[in-house]
Design brief:
With about 600 residues, the chain is an alpha/beta fold. Helices cover about 65% and strands about 10% of the residues. The strands form two sheets. The chain has a six-stranded mixed sheet, with helices on both faces. A four-stranded antiparallel sheet has the order 2-1-4-5, with helices on one face. Strand 9 and strand 10 (about 580-585) form a beta hairpin. InterPro entries: AAA+_ATPase, ABC1_TM_dom, ABC1_TM_sf, ABC_transporter-like_ATP-bd, ABC_transporter-like_CS, P-loop_NTPase, Type_1_exporter.
């Protein structure tokens, strides 16, 4: 389905508002026509020397629709001397324009309402769709590109959509009405216009298609700028410490230069269409003046009043005709933006859900992995291969191994961020695929190495995911995470805003807030994914104490390199190249597992 057809489907819920806007458009066109029609009568009254000449012969000549309309006009404004006629014509002219503008304002407001609602619905639907996708969807796309489409493309679509909707709602009716009036006055002159107009339409169509291609390339270039900006600002600490500001400035300027060139090409075509339309309109009017003058002065088949009225209507039709060209280019540009938006919305990378999912609110026995294999894409090798593992309730399990062994992938499968390529994962003997996914994920509290904090208060960050902030619970979990003391020492305590990504806090403070957040739902399973790898000794000791206090009545899954973090685990699972090569206690593995012993000797665990 073409993008602009899909856009029209988004307008359907607001059809009543659009019908009211269409009524305003019809009234606008009618009052516009009345004003133009009486303007010719006004001019005729001024330049006709005798009053009796104004209405002479009207009753006898009223045979065609044009003559009937002229009779009606003179019956309304006729009578008295020329000044009286002019006064009545001016009053009608003024009132017609007054009502025309009133209906114009009403129509624009109604269309603006629909436009804003449609854009809001589209942006909400796009965001909802993205959040419903699996984690793999985000692995294969730049976050900056997704942000650019949600913000830049939708905003650009909004600008073009307003122009297109306004044209669709009003200008066709105005053009048809004016063409009808032109035919009633002189079919010969009108036919001349209709012969020339299609040639102009073909030229505008060629330019419009080229403009669509260039608009698509421009938006892709803008996405690259946005993606680079998001990525670099996210790594500003690294840029500062590495002293690479000049290189990053050069990189950014190169990207913006590419966007500048593509935007300039797009604008060159965009600005060409409107003056081209005006030149074509001027050429048409020139031919009409010549041909109309011939009909008036040489053949006498048209009177002066009809010619003045015809020219006035032609000039009035130029504005909607100009809008026709502008609206067409708007549709082409909007189509390019919409194609990128719908391209994301058409991507389906959601995890399958059971028709009647099993509700779950606790871990009663164990999590079981049976012959589990997984790869991120068809092109990749297996990240995990034939993994069998049992994680019992209230057990502390440590996962160790070299980088790339598959530890974090295993956690992603247990929390069902991915589904295994082969094998099954069961919680209390029920396949994860059959469980309610929201209920499943509430069983887990995750503390990762890459901490995500928001530019909000301490309390809001800890309570993230809850509908209402329970301060008593927030204080309780902060104490469990050994975070309460430093929070209360801050200038506004739990109401202190911590800055973008928590940059106002130290690494240890960020990690303790992350632990508190993981505990706020009181999950039965808590996962520590290398939570102490970049901390100083004091911060690590505090987090070790927090972890130790959680062992009772919680299942802990710990990924770590440091000995102190894993030595107290009930069981240590050793992974290498996506497979489990051994598992046991620290002492058992140190005696029999060569890889584990080597890791200890290389101080990966010390």
């Amino acid at each position: 389905m073409r993008p602009y057809i899909r856009l029209l489907s988004l307008i359907k819920p607001y059809k009543k508002t659009l019908l009211l806007a269409f009524f305003c458009s019809v009234m606008y066109a009618l009052f516009n026509a009345v004003a133009i029609w009486f303007s010719a009568s006004f001019i005729t009254a001024i330049f006709t020397p005798e009053t009796n000449q104004l209405t002479a012969g009207i009753s006898d000549q009223a045979a065609s629709l044009n003559e009937n309309l002229k009779v009606l006009a003179w019956q309304i404004i006729g009578g008295g001397d020329r000044f009286d006629i002019v006064m009545r014509a001016v009053m009608i002219f003024f009132l017609a324009f007054l009502f025309r503008n009133a209906f114009d304002v009403s129509q624009v407001y109604l269309i603006t309402f629909v436009e804003q609602r449609v854009i809001k619905d589209l942006r909400d639907k796009l965001y909802r769709h993205m959040l419903s996708q699996s984690l793999g969807f985000f692995h294969r796309r730049k976050s900056g590109e997704l942000a650019s489409v949600t913000l830049n493309d939708v905003t650009a679509l909004q600008e073009k959509m307003m122009k297109a909707i306004k044209f669709i709602m009003r200008e066709p009716f105005v053009i048809v009405l004016f063409l009808f009036l032109l035919f009633t006055i002189s079919w010969k002159l009108t036919l001349t216009i209709l012969i020339i107009a299609p040639v102009a339409g073909l030229l505008i169509d060629v330019l419009g298609k080229s403009l669509k291609r260039k608009s698509s390339r421009m938006q892709e270039a803008l996405s690259n700028v946005t993606a680079l900006l998001y990525e670099r600002l996210g790594g500003i600490r690294l840029i500062k410490t590495a002293g690479t500001e000049d290189q990053e400035i050069d990189r950014f300027e190169g990207t913006t230069t590419s966007y500048f060139r593509k935007a300039l090409r797009q604008r060159r075509f965009d600005i060409l269409i409107v003056p081209l339309t005006e030149i074509i309109g001027l050429a048409i009017i020139s031919l009409i003046l010549i041909y109309g003058g011939y009909l008036v002065f040489r053949t006498s088949t048209m009177d002066a009043e009809d010619f003045v009225r015809f020219i006035a209507i032609v000039f009035a039709i130029l504005a909607p005709a100009k809008e026709l060209g502008g609206a067409y280019t708007s549709v082409q540009i909007a189509s390019a933006f919409a194609a990128r938006i719908f391209g994301i919305m058409d991507t389906k990378e959601q995890l399958p859900t059971a028709k009647e999912p099993v509700q779950v609110d606790n871990l009663k026995k164990a999590i079981r992995l049976d012959d589990v294999s997984f790869r991120y894409s068809q092109k990749d090798d297996n990240a995990l291969s034939h993994v069998d593992l049992n994680i019992n309730r209230d057990e502390t399990i440590a996962l160790v191994g070299p980088s790339g062994a598959g530890k974090t992938t295993l956690i992603g499968l247990i929390t069902r961020l991915f589904d295994p390529t082969q094998g099954s994962i069961k919680l209390d003997d029920v396949n994860l695929r059959d469980l309610d996914i929201n209920g499943l994920r509430k069983l887990f509290g995750v503390v990762s190495q890459d901490i995500v904090l928001f530019n909000d208060t301490v309390a809001a960050n800890i309570a993230y995911g809850t509908r209402e902030i329970d301060l008593d619970r927030v204080h309780e979990v902060a104490k469990l995470a050994y975070a309460d003391d430093f929070i209360r020492a801050m200038h506004e305590g739990y109401d202190t805003k911590i800055g973008d990504r928590g940059m106002r806090l130290s690494g240890g403070q960020q990690q303790r807030l992350s632990i508190a957040r993981a505990l706020v739902h009181d999950p039965p399973v808590i996962i520590f994914d290398e939570a102490t790898s970049h901390l100083d000794s004091e911060s690590e000791n505090l987090i070790q104490q927090a972890m130790e206090s959680l062992r009772e009545n919680h299942t802990l899954i710990v990924i770590a390199h440091r000995l102190a973090t894993v030595r107290r685990a009930d069981r240590i699972v050793v992974l290498d190249k996506g497979t489990i090569i051994d598992q046991g206690t620290y002492d058992e593995l140190h005696d029999r597992c060569e890889l584990f012993t080597r890791l200890c000797q290389q101080q990966f665990l010390t």
